[in-house]
Design brief:
Blueprint: H1 4-11, E1 17-21, H2 25-30, E2 37-38, H3 44-51, E3 58-62, H4 68-78, E4 84-86, H5 90-96, H6 107-120, E5 124-125, H7 127-135, E6 141-144, H8 148-153, E7 160-161, H9 166-169, E8 180-183, H10 188-200, E9 206-209, H11 212-218, H12 237-254, H13 261-268, H14 283-288
Parallel strand pairs: 1-2, 1-3, 3-4, 5-9, 6-7, 6-8, 8-9
Length: about 290
């Protein structure tokens, strides 16, 4: 067992820590520490490999103060994890210590969206104004910046699936300077997308839909379900070169560092920390190579 104060110190330190909240989805969404990851005890054995792939990672366990974390410690030790520490008193102790708690889900990413709005002040458009422009035939590019799986479940009629990142990369496929409207399920990804596009292409007119599909529904309008996402626009050699130039200019302006193969191999062989490797290409590009 580890004292709740010591556990919080570890979370604020520089060493790698996995912080798993073993409670169910409902109590987690009502109140949980920042950066705690849902790790429902009933699903833990099946999901732990993805949640914590490295057996030597330090794992902090938070329960409802009911002793579940001790059972999880035994389970994880049996699976080969070597540094598993239940937090003494669990969620009740965290709350009693006066440490911050947050409601909802995806809190870190939503916080990023709110900070983005404060720092970059991306332009927004309300659902009523967007509906008026769509009905009036206003020329625009209207993109849903969520992945295709979410877009297919529910979308605003007329929106096309083009996830964040792809929008900046594929700007060269949109020859005229019609305004770009971005939407997501709520507001976070739309705001981040709008701010990102303005950073790499300040000459373009970009707005985010206020509150995304949720705002659209709350305004009394219907969503479309079962849509099949179009293929992402292709880029010719000139457009590809322009995308590369924008990326290089952005990296230079903001001091973004690059990793060469030799340094990557050193990181890959480091058994003292977990290495996550993300392929940010489209699914078709990733499957082709």
């Amino acid at each position: 067992m580890i004292d709740v104060g010591k556990a919080r110190e570890m979370l604020h330190g520089r060493d790698e820590v996995a912080f798993l909240d073993l409670r169910g989805a409902a109590p987690f969404s009502e109140a949980h520490p920042l950066f705690a990851t849902p790790g429902n005890f009933g699903l833990l054995e099946a999901e732990i490999g993805e949640l914590v792939p490295r057996l030597g990672t330090r794992i902090l366990l938070l329960d409802a103060g009911d002793g579940v974390s001790e059972a999880a410690q035994v389970l994880l030790a049996g699976l080969g994890y070597t540094d598993v520490r239940p937090i003494d008193g669990g969620h009740l102790a965290w709350q009693a210590a006066g440490f911050p708690l947050y409601s909802g889900v995806h809190v870190p990413s939503k916080t990023l969206g709110e900070l983005t709005e404060i720092a970059f002040k991306p332009d927004v458009i309300g659902p009523d104004e967007l509906a008026r422009r769509l009905a009036g035939g206003t020329e625009m590019y209207f993109f849903d910046v969520r992945p295709a799986s979410e877009h297919g479940k529910m979308r605003i009629p007329g929106s096309r699936c083009l996830p964040n990142g792809e929008t900046a990369h594929r700007l060269g496929a949109f020859e005229n300077d019609d305004p770009i409207v971005l939407t997501c399920a709520g507001r976070t990804r739309g705001l981040i997308g709008a701010a990102s596009l303005r950073l790499v292409a300040p000459e373009r007119r970009v707005v985010a839909l206020e509150d995304g599909t949720q705002g659209w529904v709350l305004s009394g309008r219907a969503l479309e379900r079962g849509a099949v996402a179009d293929r992402f626009p292709s880029l010719d050699d000139q457009a590809m070169a322009a995308s590369r130039a924008r990326a290089d200019a952005f990296a230079d302006a903001h001091g973004i560092q690059f990793l060469d193969r030799a340094a990557f191999e050193v990181w890959a062989q480091d058994t003292a920390r977990t290495l996550y490797l993300f392929d940010v290409r489209s699914p078709e590009e990733a499957d082709a190579d």
